Every structure is written in structure tokens, then in C-alpha cells.
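ok here's the first one, seq then C-alpha cells
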Amino acid sequence: MRNIFLFIRRYFNFVFFVVLQIAALYILFHYNKFHEAVFSGVANELTGSIGGRYNNITYYFHLKKTNDALAKENEELRNRLLTNFERPDTTQKLVQDTIPYDTLGHYRKYLYRSARVVNNTVSLPNNTLTINRGEKQGIHRNMGVISPSGVVGVVINTSSNYAVVMSLLHRQSKVYASLKKTGETGQVFWDGNSPLYVTLKNIPKSAQVAKGDSVVTSQYASYRFPQGILVGTVMDIIDDKTSSFYTLRLKPATNFFNVQYVMVVENLMKDEQAKLEEETNKINQ
């Protein structure tokens, strides 16, 4: 207490000046409409600026929760797409099986499951991603994996709660893709060089192709991917004079340097298709 009195005694003139200054400002802003308006504007601007900065800081620390919510929402929206269902031939007699279908008789073909990337490589000859979903969450080998922007790769190994994905930047990766504009189909692979590009081969020179054209998954990739998923964009057209085909250099639709969330695609009719094709091959042998 003694120290407080000593402090006031020592700085009495300054403290008294501050009190008078506050009183004078209060009277000025309280009884003068113009000054009150100016003060209110400055105060609102200041508090708004502070509030905006505080909001940006809190938003940054809530990004993980926001991204998780968006990934879940994207999963639900993708599972509602009509392209995930196939309409049966209504002129024929149908026998109900165990494949889910909607009230219009459209059989669900594709089911999506969201996952987060927990490990990723881009600088190796054979690059992979690890996702935080595994067999307990319904993930199995040979399932296709896509990002919000396009094709990522194929699941090649699983554990109970994790899965490893062979990305497009893997020398054993092969995806059937077609030109979105004209439909010619070829095979996308990676040559092991730059992670910024992949290659599309076997596009006939009769195809009308130009830089900037989109390349999407073809109907032949439906075993793992729905048709029409973006694979990449044409950057260069290589004209081999000794061949009847173009070699196209593509920029991948997925940015493998910062991919964080993906969707694992399950083809619910895969086993039926594989069984039929296997039986047909045995007959033709």
C-alpha cells in the first residue's frame, strides 16, 4: 500500500493530467455529435480490424476440422451422383440380387469412401501414397483412388486401418484414358522422369487433338474408375514419323505435391464382370 502512495505522489502530475485528458475527451465525444460520429467510426474500424485478424487466426487453427467436414460432404455428394447407378433393361425380366439399387431401379455401381493422405512421395522411380483407411473401412486392393481434381492411382496393399496407393507417378502404373473431345483411347503411364508430366500413348494420328485438351478415364477403365474422371491436360504432342500414333505429354489433373484428401472408388459390379470375362476366356481357349 505504501508503494502505491509513493507511486501516486511521484507521478501525481502525470496521473492527474491523464485523468483530466480522459474527462475532456469524454465530454468532447459525448456532447458533440460530429466528434461522437468520428470516434464511433474509428472505434468500429479498429474493432473490426482486430476482430478480422482474430477470426483469421481461429480459422487457421480450425482448418483441419473444416477439411475433414468438406471431405465427408464430398463423399456423400459423390455417392448421390446418378452416374454411380446403371439402369437395367426394363424390357427383360429382372431378378433381384444383393447389389443396392434406388427406387427407380438404378443399380449402384460405384461407392466412394473418403480418406486422408498420411504419407506421399513424388521423387522416387515408383511413388506411392499412404491413406488412413484400410480393410476395416472397406478398402481392398485394386480399388481406384481419385482426388477432388482427378485420378490419383490404385490401391496396391492394405492393412487393418491403412492402405498404400500406387500413384500415377509409378512406372508400373497404367490407366486407360481417352480424349474427352473426340473419344480416342490410349494408355497413360509415367516414364520415371519429371513428376510434373505423364504420357499418353496409342492415340491415332487421325484424332483431332490440340494442346489444352482434356484427357479422362475411358469406359475401359470402369473396372477401377468411373468413366469421365479427369486424368490430365495435353501439354505437348509428339509426332513420331515412324508410327501411326501420337505420343501426348500430359500435366496430371492431381497435384501430387500437395494432395491431402482422396476418394477410394469401389466398383460393386466388379466381381460379376470379372467372373463373366473369366468364364468367356475359358470357353474361347
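and now the second one, same deal
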Amino acid sequence: MRELLPVLIVVGILAALAVFGPFIAPNPPNAIDIPNRLAPPGGEYLLGTDAMGRCILSRLLHGARWSLGLAFLVSTIGLIAGSVLGLVAAMGGRTVDWAVMRVTDIFLAFPDLVAAVVVAGVLGAGTSSLIFALTVTGWMRYARVARGIGLGLATRGHVVQAQLAGLSGPAIARWHYVPALVPSLTVVWTGMLARAILGISALGFLGFGVQPPTPEWGTMLLDARVHIRSTPLQMIWPGMAVVFCVLAINITGDVLRDALTDRDAPA
């Protein structure tokens, strides 16, 4: 697993920024300094200021807690909900399996972002609506993976023996299904974490996400779009933050997948 070390370091840095970023921010994120509005990088404001004179670096560091923290929350809720539904489908018999998979197919028929925008638009802009919209549109891949692995385990000897021994369904799921699901679902979770970051930023840019003046990368892009010609760095900084985080997490997922494939490959 030595090849995992570099990407895990990067992801650790991202996690540290999300947790400790506000403590190392050089200025308050919402402090207005009108005389220095749209200031270029340098001096007191290392990345410049926005149209209200607020420090962009400070807002990026505070925004990491919202963008990365909400993405972690959304992807984890989706992981739990999707895994439970997938196991219910795998262990509940043919009728339950058919019903759960048809619901899953219906949700998968709609593009994630479009469906999230519709849900957030119906519920109204705000953090809670954002979380609900992205969770409702992001659990299906976990369910399909959990269901597929669960069906493969159903005929394994140790599972059949546990059933014959009278072990309850939840106990069988805990001791036999969950350990088998963890590696594959971890890889899926990293991909969905990256998608959640993009979704949060996209909904923020469209005005359906975290509301101003709270600093979040998508809302920072929304605020900066008016000045894209005169001061393009306002959009470049939060855009680079989103791209870097998504790229780092996707690379981590690829490395995890390769490591798990090599481990499971026959010698």
C-alpha cells in the first residue's frame, strides 16, 4: 500500500484545511474593506479582495469547511442509506429486490445535478435543502454495489451456514456482509465525495446552496462572476480550489481501486 501514501497525505492536508482553515485565516471572512475592494494579490491580502473588500484567502479557508464538510456529510449519508437499501434488496427476497431496484432505476434515470437543482428549487435555497437534494440524488450507486455484492455472498458457504444456525438477518449482515462491502464501497465513496463537492459548488453558483454572506466556494464563484473581465482572479481562486480537491480525491479513489484489485488478484 506504499503507493497510497502520497495521495493520502494530500487528502489529509485537505481534511486539515477543512477543520483548521478558519483558525489560520489571516482576516475575518466577512470583514468589509471598501477602500481596498478588488485589490490585487499582495500585502495584507495575499490573494486579493472581492468586490466588497473581503479577503479572498480567508474566505477560501473558511469556505473549505463548508464545501468539504458538507460533501463529506452528503456522501456519508448516501453511503449509509444506499448500503442499507442494497442489503435489504439482496437479503429480502425476489419481491423486495425487484421493488428496491425499480426505485433505484427511476432515480438513476435523471442526471444527478439536474435532479438536485429541481429538488433544491422546490424546497428553497438553503443548506438543509442542499444536503437533502444531493443525498436524495446520490444514494443509488451505493445501493447497486451493495446489492450486487450481497447477491454474490448469499450462496457462499459461510453465509448459508450462518442462516442454518439460526443467526438473525441483521447479525448475518453485520458479520458477513458488511466486511465484504467495505472495500468496494470505500472506492465508491471517494468518487461520490468528489461528485458531492462539484454538486455543492454548482448549486452554490446557481444560488440554491449555502447562502451569502457565508463563504462557500460555489457562492464565491457566484459573487465573482460579475467581475470576471476586470478581475478574473476572483473566480480563478475558488475554481482552482474545487478542481484541486476533486482531482486529489479522484486520484485517491483510482489508487484505492488499483490497490484493492492487486490485492484480490490471484498470485
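notes on #2: Residues 16 and 205 are 25 Å apart (CA to CA). The chain has a mean pLDDT of 86.
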